[in-house]
Amino acid sequence: METHPLSLPEIVLIVGKHIPLWVPREQRYDVVVWLFQPKDLVAALSVNRLFYTILTPLLWNACAYPYDRSQKYLSSSYRGNLCRFRDVAAEVFTKNSIHIRYLDLSRYEPHDLHSLNQLQLACTRLRELRLSHGVDATNAGQLIRANPGLQLVRWKRYIKFLNEPEDLRVLFPLRQLRYLGLKGWAINPVYLHHILHNNADTLEEVELGEWSIVLRTPHMNEQWNGLDPSSLDSLTDEEQAEAVDLIKGQSLLLPKVKTLHLLVKWSDTSRSTVCNLVRSFPALETLKIGFVDNELGMRLGNNLKEICPKLNSILNMMPAFDSGRVPLPGYDGISYVVGACVPGNLVHIELNRWEFDAKLADALVEHRNGLEILDVSLSDYHHIVQSFDNVSKVLARCTRLREFSMYNDSRLCKEQHASILLNGLKECRTLEWLTLVGFPFAGPDESDNEANDEEEGELDAELGVPGNTIPTPTPQRSFELWPGWSRGENKNRGDLVAPRDTLKIMVFEAVGTLPSIKTVDLNNQRFEKMSSI
User: Is the pLDDT of residue 327 over 90?
Assistant: First the structure.
């Protein structure tokens, strides 16, 4: 008697892995979102006892708790298929927790702690664990100790609440981490050294985010193999002994880390410690960083230039929470970080800024033969002409640029300002994808009610500055879709208003005939060049 293939557990498992749990729904803000549809897999569970036994773990492979009814979709940025169950009883969750490989508790709140204790999770095969500030050190420690094979840990805290540096000790046993994310922490550098050193052979990405604070004392020396002598006086004998025991005089070297997030709050006493940390990542390719002043930018730039020759991608975030106020002109040191890249190596840069000054433009022009992706977000009201002019100069010089995105948050943007930008875009012969968002065009005959007289006066003064040549506004006329182009909705930006005809006319006159252009996104509309038959 021949054995039916579907009676073999190995075959059933292979078939089950090909039953889709997620269906791509649409794109939102540059990521694909997926709709959880487990009906086919659930139906397969009811075939017979073998199917139920073999396929049940697949259904519980990745879970989030508690289920958030407002979270209907899943971002593709998640490392694994996330399962948010609706109305699952605690005992059912507990019974099947043994199957969970990817556990997401990042939405857990402190008032849910009693429920977490009731769950009595039996997870012992976790590969990835995401924790919120609501998961206390006791529960976190139990999960981590039960899963020494964890490859990803992302733990978010609030700087001002429930944040004890000693809680990091629960990560000491881990030896196989590929991703470590600490967000909103007060970080003891000695503990960080020990955790990173324990996982030096496997770590590929390190995130110090959500404006984490690196403690002022103790702080590390330049080689990160011991404490800076100046910090010893502030430590007790026990703290010094602990540091010696954890560090053991070992230099920190992580040869596989390619991505580093440094969204930290810089203190005067910890900046040396953090600046020298980048010397531990010789293979670094991507750096995500917040605001840095000139002195800090120079320090970081020198270390990056010396140690990180492969750096090719920079993401610069500058929210108000980082610095507390808009930096003074000339105070921003990001140009030194950009200058740390080997000329021609910088391929991708994202800049979220208040202004785009000439110093930054000059630094980017040095990478004109390598830069392929430029993403700029501006929110400054007072230097819009200079910022647009500097961006335009970069565009005109970058001979390999394929993608350019501009997100403008200035309520005072007019078509004259867009004209400055488009003058540079005309020179981008290799441009394939253009995105312009936030160009409301409070035109010459329209008043922007949100703009105050002071801001208007400052902008008018800027327009009169020698060297700022503003083209004559384009006469009002209706936009007609160019032959060979299609128009649709940009689902990434469905919450925005449609672009005005004035903008569409100006953009297509500037880039519509570029030889490589394929896609143009203007606010919530997408224009795509159709393939010629």
Answer: no
